[in-house]
Specification:
This protein has about 325 residues and is mainly α. The chain is built from 13 helices and three strands, in the order H-H-H-H-H-H-H-E-E-E-H-H-H-H-H-H. Helices cover about 55% and strands about 5% of the residues. The chain has a three-stranded antiparallel β-sheet with strand order 1-2-3, with no helix packed on it.
């Protein structure tokens, strides 16, 4: 009988080849499923099989996750616990499709997770952030172009680091992006983002295709073009540096700029469906996280413009 590790590897191959999931998604699913295997191995004293994924073992695994503490004594976040079960349910669904007799996926209930607060910057804070890079150096021009591009497009940071120069059409102000799950979408540049990208590219005299490159030297083989590509972590650190310079006390990440892009559009009157397309969300429900933010704006508009709120309105 094939053990759990065998089926896990086949499932991860399925995610990579047939579902076209990102390497990060496959890696995370593999991590969550391996943690379940390790738990069962320790509990049962033998290499676990599919039959060992039963309701009682899953219940005890959930208890294990709830009581887990890392080497610093920190518990797993509720959302992280939920990710383990999401991965397990996806795994079981795939096994059912492959005619394996396993625990029904719908019998695994996900824990209730408190909705996360949505962090975004107001326009004046975005402006303060954008003005921080020094324009006297090519690194500063690069950083200004990155910040402008993130706020202009709402790109995920992984999408931004993967961009090549030949993907940008300066005549039309458009670029094609391959997002999550290999889905392509059209992204538009603001006039200001186009201006700063053109200024940065005009200063470049290197042969590398990446939109944004490292100036501290390559990471790896100097002959490989991607050794010069700026990393996600470098962009995160760069934004944190400019956030401190701008005197912004709240945490600012590339994803906060993505939220800021979306809320800026909604505050200005864009409809939710259009914002969904621009963000590359597969499901409108994902975009609806912004509605509780824009609801505050709707209240302001109602109070300001409805005739029943005007001074002198007759009361009966």
């Amino acid at each position: 009988m094939k053990n759990l590790a065998y089926w896990r590897e086949r499932f991860l191959e399925y995610l990579e080849v047939e579902k076209n999931r990102s390497p990060l998604t496959s890696r995370n699913y593999g991590f969550y499923l391996r943690r379940l295997e390790e738990y069962l191995q320790k509990k049962l004293g033998h290499s676990p099989t599919l039959a060992d994924i039963n309701r009682e073992n899953v219940r005890q695994f959930r208890l294990y996750l709830a009581r887990f503490r890392d080497y610093r004594g920190r518990p797993l976040k509720k959302i992280t616990q939920a990710y383990h079960l999401i991965a397990l349910r996806s795994f079981l669904r795939w096994l059912v499709k492959n005619d394996q007799k396993v625990l029904a996926p719908e019998k695994i209930e996900l824990p209730r997770v408190e909705s996360r607060s949505l962090s975004f910057l107001t326009f004046d804070k975005v402006e303060r952030l954008l003005l921080q890079p020094s324009l006297q150096t090519i690194q500063g021009l690069r950083d200004r172009a990155i910040l402008e591009l993130l706020f202009s497009t709402g790109l995920r940071v992984s999408e931004l680091v993967a961009l090549n120069r030949d993907q940008i059409n300066f005549k039309t102000g458009e670029l094609n992006v391959i997002g999550k799950g290999g889905h392509a979408r059209l992204v538009f540049l603001s006039e200001r983002a186009r201006y700063w990208l053109e200024r940065y590219f005009a200063k470049r005299d290197d042969p590398w295709p990446a939109c944004f490159i490292r100036y501290s030297g390559p990471k790896g083989d100097i002959r490989r073009p991607d050794s010069w590509r700026l990393s996600v972590r470098s962009i995160q650190r760069m934004i944190a540096k400019y956030r401190r310079r701008a005197g912004i006390v709240t945490k600012v990440t590339p994803h906060v700029l993505r939220h800021s892009f979306a809320t800026d559009l909604l505050f200005s009157g864009a409809d939710l469906r259009s914002v969904q397309e621009l963000l590359g969300h597969k499901n409108i429900a994902t975009t609806q996280i912004y509605t509780h933010v824009t609801n505050k704006r709707l209240r302001e508009i109602y109070q300001k413009y409805h005739s029943g709120n005007r001074k002198g309105a007759r009361r009966r």
